[in-house]
Amino acid sequence: MGSCNKPQQQQQQHVQGPIIIGAGPSGLAVAACLSEHKVPFVILERHNCIASLWQNKTYDRLKLHLPKQFCELPLKGFPHTFPKYPTKYQFISYMESYASHFNIHPIFNQTVESADFDKGSKVWVVKTQEVDYSSRWLVVATGENAEPVVPRIHGMELFNGDVAHTSVYKSGSEYRNKKVLVIGCGNSGMEVCLDLCRHNAKPYMVARNTVHVLPREMFGFSTFGVAMALYKWFPIKLVDKIILLATNFILGNTNHYGIKRPKTGPIELKLATGKTPVLDVGQVAQIKCGNIKVMEGVKEITRNGAKFMDGQEKEFDAIILATGYKSNVPTWLKGCDFFTEDGMPKTPFPHGWKGEQGLYTVGFTRRGLQGTSCDAIKIAEDIAEQWRTVEDKSHCDSHIILLNNS
């Protein structure tokens, strides 16, 4: 006799507090703030560790681009023993101690397939492969950098060498003595080029778009810190002029080396669009002496290399895509018009942290960990206020039931 395999029953789990999707810095920050308010929560994480982007998809020599005081999460700072610019591994250890300190235990290997608001029961239903979670509150903490952006470039499939996104790049040691085309001139692209130089590779960096390159420090102070201090007293356009004057004095005019600046100043551009200036940690010196070659733009990829917009054609052993990341919210959050097609809140900072029907977002401010901390505090306070109302009502209902039974 044949047997019939019945589909496994999906488990149902109602969560008393909010469901937080994502156990990166954003999710941990909200969880810590909720813990301080004594509000329970569940964190769902698709990978097998916290801060998976930092642990699995960053290169070995990565350091924080800003001083540690600008990168702390709420309620617990970095150890005093950490340097001004902590390494990738120090930041990961900070995240792990942060989670331990606030007794945060995410449920790992929980890929969210969909999240929907059920209008009938007025709860969010979050489906994973095995469990349907439900809650009055949903916190989207998957952030701006959930998925690598892989551009379509004509001829890419024909290339004979290796093609890799920076999400899988670890060290220039794998590219020793090779000619490498790095597509992208943001912080990742520039730092990968610098790392390649230090391993005797020959990087060619494509700078198709304009970008601001600023010194990481100005006269012994963090450039970001200087800009924020000036911003308290002066108009943003004047702050940008001061920063660019100092930059030209320290680095020279980057236009001369193929790195063209945008017309909008670096701080104004960052606040308006989220586009982060590149902070120089040695790249400009390597560009000046010709160890990093700057190319204008790729027209097409060939079997052995690439053709460029200016007519040049060169051979390469490998291609690295420093083309950034994107949000993945539109792939799983259903029936909600709070986000754009690009997976970013339609409402700009500082009001994009709260939607309707118990929906919250954190890590989408384009203002780094400072923006994350700001939103995490607001979210926890808002949910805690509602939680106390729910708790008070349940205690009242219990008291009435006890009276009726007596």
UniProtKB/TrEMBL annotation:
CC annotations in GO: endoplasmic reticulum membrane
Quote any Pfam family the record assigns: Pyr_redox_3
Keywords attached to this Swiss-Prot or TrEMBL record, sorted alphabetically, are:
Auxin biosynthesis, FAD, Flavoprotein, Monooxygenase, NADP, Oxidoreductase, Pyruvate
The record's top EC class is: oxidoreductase
Catalysed reactions, semicolon-separated: indole-3-pyruvate + NADPH + O2 + H(+) = (indol-3-yl)acetate + CO2 + NADP(+) + H2O
Instruction: Tell me the domain of life.
Output: Eukaryota
SUPFAM superfamilies in UniProt: FAD/NAD(P)-binding domain
Q: Could you confirm whether the keyword Transmembrane appears in this record?
A: no
One biological process term in Gene Ontology:
auxin biosynthetic process
* InterPro entries recorded: Auxin_biosynth/cation_transpt, FAD/NAD-bd_sf
- Cofactor list: FAD
Which family does the UniProt entry place this protein in?
Belongs to the FMO family.
What is the designated name of this protein? indole-3-pyruvate monooxygenase
Where is the organism placed in the taxonomic lineage, from the top?
A: Eukaryota, Viridiplantae, Streptophyta, Embryophyta, Tracheophyta
